[in-house]
Amino acid sequence: MRLGQVCGALVIGGFAGTTMPRSFATRLESGELGGAILFARNITPDPHQIAELCTSIARASPDVPPIVSLDQEGGRVARIKDAVVRIPTALKVAQLDDGAIERVGHALGSHLRALGFSMDYAPVLDVHTNPTNPVIGDRAFATEPARVARAGLAFARGLASAGVAPCGKHFPGHGDTHTDSHLELPRVDHDRARLDAVEIAPFRAAARDLPAMMSAHVVYSAIDTLPATLSKRIATDLLRGELGFRGVLISDDLEMRAVAATHSAAECAVLAVEAGCDALLVCSDEGAQIAAVQGLVARAESSAAFRARCEEAHARVVALRRAFVPRAVAQGELEAALRTPDDVARLLSELA
């Protein structure tokens, strides 16, 4: 396998428009891109358009199925507005018992799988401890770590049972930040005892059960001066060493200002993989995606240790891609596949 394929498979990219650009498809076909993340900009109200787009992405990577992903948490973070079951905020969903939450997650996962997705960047495992947090808030399940863990794992079990990979985020906890990492680099200055008791606790509970987690572009000063995405102390020593996580660690979007303000796409990619990330989100700029791959290749060519790290990450990503294969249902069966089970519809109506 060429080094460009080893490194390229670590990047999950986004694009503009409701059809896949030829340039994007070419990189999937060559093995120099690991998958796609879709946003509202890519999606129309027509479920057939969504299914056709997902199918085109899946077919562009015939040897190893790509990751076909989105953020469909419910509440205000829902890239698909009409075609799938409408879920309220996580804070409301957590009012249900764990079995009901799992059924809701399964219903959503079934709809996403019918459309051709293989991964949902959910559940949020952040703890809602800061009511002025500009980015998390009611995206979190609860103000108590134990309830976040139980509800988040129930939701994740539902997604996974439907054939869609869940991804817990934002490790090791974005719930008590005062700024938005899309715009600047947030900090959490609690001591390690508090981090263990609150922020890290849901991730510790979920570490051995989730196939994937997403890192936070947040500095945790009690552990490191670097943001978690770029911190080996957090991404490797804490997550894998202390918590025992064996899945795929995915970076949050490397185009976000929290990291992009001080590092190029190539630099971010190298630093994130060195830290312990296995896959890298680069959510809109195809040029930045290409630069990220080129940066990884250049570093791997000059360092045997870094090449081994890329090969380790590649093996994890490929295993995840083989475990959760995107499969859209036949067009004539799509409407039936997108019906919401009566029990789930009743549960959700009671939360409205």
Low-confidence parts lasting 5 or more residues at pLDDT below 50?
A: none
Average of per-residue pLDDT values = 96
Which structural class matches the secondary elements?
alpha/beta
Instruction: Please give the radius of gyration in angstroms.
Output: 19 Å
Could you walk me through the main structural features you see in this protein, from its secondary elements to its overall organization?
- The protein contains 15 helices and 13 strands.
- With 352 residues, it is of the alpha/beta class.
- Helix 5 crosses helix 6, helix 11 crosses helix 12 and helix 12 crosses helix 13.
- It has a 6-stranded parallel beta sheet with strand order 7-6-3-2-1-13.
- Strand 4 and strand 5 form a beta hairpin.
What features would you highlight for this structure?
alpha/beta, globular, 352 residues, 6-stranded parallel beta sheet, 45% helix, 13 strands
Topology:
Blueprint: H1 3-8, E1 11-13, H2 22-30, E2 35-38, H3 47-59, E3 67-70, E4 72-74, E5 77-78, H4 90-93, H5 98-115, E6 119-120, H6 145-161, E7 165-166, E8 168-171, E9 187-188, H7 192-199, H8 201-206, E10 212-215, E11 219-220, H9 232-242, E12 248-250, H10 257-260, H11 265-275, E13 280-282, H12 286-302, H13 304-323, H14 334-337, H15 342-351
